[in-house]
Write a structure and sequence with these properties.
Order of helices and strands: HHEHHHHEEHHHHHEHHH
Number of strands: 4
Strand content: 5-15%
Structural class: mainly alpha
Strand order of the largest sheet: 2-3-1-4
Distance between the termini: 49 Å
Low-confidence stretches: 257-265, 326-332
Number of domains: 3
């Protein structure tokens, strides 16, 4: 370890001796290059950078009320907007507006002038992370030869970004609304066509539709009840017909013979009418147990009972007259006239009964036909239900699509109105374009320090090269490396007083010049640093 320390001290000592010996090789390049770099830096044209910060402001109306239809990746949008604003047309307008690059425009083409301007414009995102949702703001800056001009150009660029954002969002929102409107018209036409198919199907198979099944069942039940009532009425009418025919036959027998022959076992007309009255009254009592006295069948029975009672009174009177001894020769007696009138009335009732039977039979056939038709409808209902389900499925899909598009179009119209009123996402300037007081480039301090470092490096290289090419022997150790014989005697340098004075004056002059050069270097660097 002590040997390493000793070697290090020897090496440092040699380097110091070389530095002292080659001091002018080190100092002269450092002075020339360092001061030259400072002077060159001071003569380089100053350029000033103006910056503005634009905030990406979110939609002011909550999204639960209005859903934006111009939502996009803000980073990609910023990239697209940058390409649009830095286009050749836009930049040429700015160059003409502010009179930029006048000398260059005289010698170069417009495209070359635009290429000169683009590197001076910087767009710097200021998000919290690489994701688009983290982009909160971005900076716009322009570097120019004049601070006021740089500020004006930066202000113009920020205005272009704000206007471009509003225009692009409004155009995108309006385009979305227009597209949804076209799709809504197509969906409305399709919905109308599907609705027409469903309507035509329902009109074609009216009465066989699933929603009419319950009504058809109720109607069919009512028709069955009507048929049952009609058949009951038909049975009663036929019984009445048999009764009237029997009564008419008996009256005809009475007309041919004033009194019934002895030994006749047939029932008299009065007994027949009484039996019919009993049957009618019993039937009326059964109907009153279920219906009121205004029920049509009850009213009809009441009419038949009145007629039968009137016939019974006539027959009873005729029988009494026959019993009192009226002979057969008295055909023109009042009793004969009464019997004739009664027979005419019975015939009239029989004719009415016949018409009633015909009407009831016609009603029965009509009811049976209607029952068959409604039964057929009920049988076809499952088939129509399946066919209608297919058509309704297409109709419901079209209606759902129409409703969705209508809802989206309504939301899109609200979003478009929001963008037109500038209530959506927009850019807002939070830091207006700055007025630079110091040039952003060139960096005079950096250039001057760089020149000094380069000068020192050149000086070191020259000193090393001069030392390598110098083969002089400086001390006893170097002498012993070249000669094998030992050193016998050493002679010191003997100078005269004149030579000593000259040597002393030369050393003082060297120290003065060296100190002056160093002071000049430091003074120049300090001046550049203070000036910025």
């Amino acid at each position: 370890m002590p040997e390493k320390v000793e070697d290090l001290e020897v090496t440092i000592g040699k380097l110091l001796k070389v530095a002292i010996r080659r001091r002018w090789w080190l100092l002269a390049p450092a002075f020339v290059i360092g001061v030259g770099a400072c002077v060159a830096a001071m003569y380089l044209p100053n350029r000033y950078k103006s910056e503005a910060t634009i905030l990406v402001e979110r939609q002011r109306v909550p999204e639960r009320y209005v859903t934006p239809n111009a939502t996009y990746d803000i980073r990609e949008t910023l990239l697209v907007m940058t390409e649009a604003i830095l286009s050749r047309t836009r930049l040429l307008q700015i160059i003409d507006e502010f009179g930029l690059y006048r000398e260059q425009r005289k010698r170069q083409s417009p495209q070359e002038v635009v290429d000169l301007m683009r590197p001076n414009i910087t767009i710097e995102p200021m998000g919290k992370g690489p994701q688009s949702r983290d982009l909160d703001a971005f900076k716009v800056s322009f570097t120019g030869p004049d601070p006021h001009l740089a500020q004006q150009v930066t202000s113009r660029l920020t205005t272009l970004f704000i206007e471009e954002n509003l225009r692009s969002r409004e155009e995108q929102s309006a385009g979305t609304t227009s597209f949804l409107g076209d799709q809504l018209e197509t969906a409305a036409a399709d919905l109308k066509r599907q609705g027409g198919r469903v309507r035509d199907f329902k009109m074609r198979y009216l009465g066989e539709l699933p929603e009419q099944q319950q009504g058809n069942l109720e109607i069919l039940t009512g028709l069955h009840m009507q048929l049952q009532n009609t058949m009951s009425a038909l049975g009663r009418a036929r019984e009445q017909q048999v009764y009237l025919e029997s009564l008419l036959s008996q009256y005809q027998d009475i007309s041919h013979a004033a009194a019934p022959a002895s030994g006749t076992t047939g029932a008299s007309p009065a007994e027949t009418i009484r039996a019919e009255l009993t049957r009618l009254r019993n039937q009326r009592a059964d109907l009153l147990a279920r219906y009121t006295d205004r029920y049509p069948d009850v009213v009809k029975l009441d009419e038949q009972i009145k007629q039968s009672e009137a016939l019974l009174a006539v027959v009873t009177k005729a029988a009494e007259s026959a019993t009192s001894g009226a002979g057969p020769g008295k055909s023109n007696s009042p009793d004969s006239v009464a019997r004739e009138a009664t027979m005419a009335q019975v015939k009239s009732q029989l004719e009415a009964n016949r018409l009633e039977v015909q009407n009831l039979m016609a009603d029965q056939k009509q009811l049976e036909s209607r029952i068959e038709d409604y039964q057929r409808r009920l049988n076809m209902t499952p088939v129509r239900e399946q066919e209608l389900a297919d058509k309704l499925r297409d109709y419901n899909l079209s209606k759902q699509n129409y409703d969705d598009l209508l809802s989206k179009k309504t939301q899109s119209e609200l979003a478009t109105s929001l963008e037109r009123h500038q209530q959506g996402q927009q850019f807002r300037i939070i830091d207006p374009p700055s007025l630079p007081t110091k040039p952003s480039n060139p960096d005079h301090v950096q250039i001057s320090l760089g020149g000094l470092v380069v000068g020192i490096a050149v000086g070191v290289a020259l000193a090393f090269l001069a030392e390598v090419r110098d083969h002089s022997l400086r001390d006893e150790k170097e002498l012993s490396q070249f000669f094998a014989f030992p050193l016998m005697v050493g002679l010191p340098m003997l100078l005269s007083k004149v030579e000593e004075r000259k040597r002393s004056r030369a050393e003082v002059l060297e120290w003065f010049v060296g100190a002056t050069l160093c002071l000049l270097i430091f003074a120049t660097e300090f001046y550049v640093y203070r000036r910025g």
